Amino acid sequence: MSILKGVGVALVTPFNEDLSVDFESLTKLVEYNIENGTNYFVVLGTTAEAATLSSDEKKQVVEHIIKVNNKRLPLVLGIGGNNTLEVKQQIEEADLSDFEAVLSVSPYYNKPNQEGLYQHYKALASTGKNIIIYNVPSRTGQNVEAETTLRLANEFPNLFLIKEASPNILQYFDILRKKPEGFNLVSGDDEFTLPVTLAGGAGVISVIGQGYPKEFSTMVQLAFDKKVDEAYEIHNKMVEITRLIFAEGNPCGIKVVLAEKGLIKNYLRLPLVPASEGLYAKIKAEMAKI
């Protein structure tokens, strides 16, 4: 599964003014990323506002991306939730013939303990599908601790990768240091991409990457090549914009970047709202610097 290496981007779902899905802009976004060095796509992740899409819309988005991508880049499908049996059933019933793996966020709101988190992923592993663990405590309210990740990694070979977005970078390093062969980690935090890749990570599943695919994929490749100074030059150039896009939540910031680049229109579905005028101005100013 080393095919999922480098920069994966968690694609946004572009909307029209009437908040219907904007498939034309989605085509533009996919093409822009393929042309500029993105390594793989994550479809229907949290960045896609998947929670606000109907099941019909999800199906249409998936079919559209498969068609436009036309087997050029590997694809990962987001299927997650806080009802283990339902998530397991969705994974079993999904047509995954066009996908390398499923990205499954740890259960949110319920706040299971570490044994509950272990049992959740054990149940998903029993589907036999390739599954990426996704730990994002800032959104789920519960951290999948390094020990739990390593326990899963050692017991279930099809849990082959973690998208780690803990705010504690030491947790990334602990997993990288102790992980079994064949298990990988990608950064789920754009700002940690470079140090985590240099420490042995397999790159990033990125939000900012879809707005700056050339810069981000170049930086990660330089990290793989251990060209540290050149990689940090790009990292330092991208830090401010990376922080700004998350200042009022995701994906409102990245949608400003993509709208300014003429790739999508700046609409979000409730409960999310577009970036404030102040943030929009800051992002635009930072883009001009880049």
From TrEMBL:
EC number in record: 4.3.3.7
Protein localization: Cytoplasm
Catalytic activity: L-aspartate 4-semialdehyde + pyruvate = (2S,4S)-4-hydroxy-2,3,4,5-tetrahydrodipicolinate + H2O + H(+)
UniProt GO molecular function: 4-hydroxy-tetrahydrodipicolinate synthase activity
UniProt: pyruvate binding residues: T47, I205
Pathway(s) where this gene product acts: Amino-acid biosynthesis; L-lysine biosynthesis via DAP pathway; (S)-tetrahydrodipicolinate from L-aspartate: step 3/4
CDD domains with a match to the protein in the record: DHDPS
Record keywords: Amino-acid biosynthesis, Cytoplasm, Diaminopimelate biosynthesis, Lyase, Lysine biosynthesis, Schiff base
InterPro entries to which the protein is assigned, alphabetical: Aldolase_TIM, DapA, DapA-like
Catalytic residues as annotated in Swiss-Prot or TrEMBL: Y134, K163
Site (Part of a proton relay during catalysis): T46, Y109
SUPFAM superfamilies named among the record's database cross-references: Aldolase
Family designation: Belongs to the DapA family.
Subunit field text: Homotetramer; dimer of dimers.
HAMAP family: DapA
Its job: Catalyzes the condensation of (S)-aspartate-beta-semialdehyde [(S)-ASA] and pyruvate to 4-hydroxy-tetrahydrodipicolinate (HTPA).
Protein name: 4-hydroxy-tetrahydrodipicolinate synthase
